[in-house]
Design a protein that fits this description.
This protein is an alpha+beta fold and 292 residues long. The chain folds into 2 domains: 64 residues; 215 residues, Fumarylacetoacetase-like, C-terminal domain (Fumarylacetoacetate hydrolase, domain 2, Alpha-Beta Complex).
Length: 292
């Protein structure tokens, strides 16, 4: 199932999307009551699977597509340096406060940080250039995991049982703030710095261990990798994060970005107003945002 949050006629609702038909179907028809947010769908997905009826669809073009979870209930959990080639390019860039030489570029344990939930935006929304705060904006195409079942001390073998679905995240980063402050939170959490979407695909339709991940800037292919290349796979990430922290339904985990980001070029190729960033992950659609 492809699930989206849309705004139409002043109302926000969660819908079932069928991209091949360019249509959506409101889930409220299945439950007989409004379904205003994705968390309520995550908690009632079994009921919805047996109740939803595909009557005449509504054209997607007539609605404003928001992020699947427009404001996550908690910070977006992120993973740094989780592709081998990106870990090397980041260390070579001089912006990496976690490593200084190629010998220690590959982390020995997952690097975990977060982004403020308020920086989430949807497909087609503008990434606002933070004039006066940063002039080193970068893009990071990432597969994101959405938790469906709560859990603490989740084992690798049970990790996939706790996943509701998958979406795309652009982990937009102010590299100068990331370098200056050593910790990554501030450089990752400026307003509009977490495009997410276009929709949330349920776990039964996705093989997360073999997905192509691509990113274009102004039509130029910059990132082209596969989730097979992750240093720490999804079960390892979930086991690590949940070891002493309870994961809750609606939690979003961005699994890291591959090589090809702006700081990987000599000189760096940072984003500027007017640029467009488009990310495509196999089976999850396309997420496209412009710098304004």
């Amino acid at each position: 199932m492809r699930l989206a949050t849309v705004e139409q006629g002043g109302r926000t609702k969660v819908v079932l999307v069928e991209p091949e038909n360019d249509s959506y179907y409101p889930l409220e028809a299945a439950l007989g009551e409004p379904v205003p947010d994705m968390l309520s769908v995550i908690l009632r997905i079994d009921e919805l699977r047996t109740s939803i009826e595909r009557t005449r669809g509504t054209p997607i073009a007539g609605a404003r597509l928001l992020a699947p979870i427009p404001r996550p209930p908690r910070n977006v959990i992120c993973v740094g340096k989780n592709y081998h080639e990106h870990a090397q390019e980041f260390t070579r860039s001089g912006f990496d406060s976690s490593a200084k030489t190629p010998a220690d570029a590959i982390p020995k344990a997952p690097i975990i940080f977060t982004k403020a939930p308020e920086c989430v935006i949807g497909d087609g929304a503008d990434i606002r250039y933070p004039c006066g705060a940063s002039n080193c904006l970068d893009y990071e195409a990432e597969l994101a995991v959405v938790i469906g079942r709560p859990g603490r001390s989740i084992s690798k073998s049970a990790a996939y049982d706790h996943i509701f679905g998958y979406t795309i995240v652009n982990d937009v980063t102010a590299r100068d703030l990331q370098e200056r402050h050593k910790q990554w939170f501030l450089g990752k959490s400026l307003d509009t710095f977490c495009p997410m979407g276009p929709w949330l695909v349920t776990a039964d339709e996705v093989d997360p261990e073999d997905l192509s991940v691509k990113c274009w800037v102004n039509g130029e292919l910059r990132q082209n990798a596969n989730t097979r290349d992750l240093i720490f796979d999804i079960p390892t990430l979930i086991e690590t994060i949940s070891a002493g922290m309870t994961l809750l339904p609606g939690d979003v985990i961005a699994t890291g970005t591959p090589a090809g980001v702006g700081i990987g070029f000599k000189p760096p190729r940072f984003l500027r107003p007017g640029d467009q960033v488009t990310i495509e992950i196999e089976g999850l659609g396309r997420l496209s945002n412009s710098i304004a």
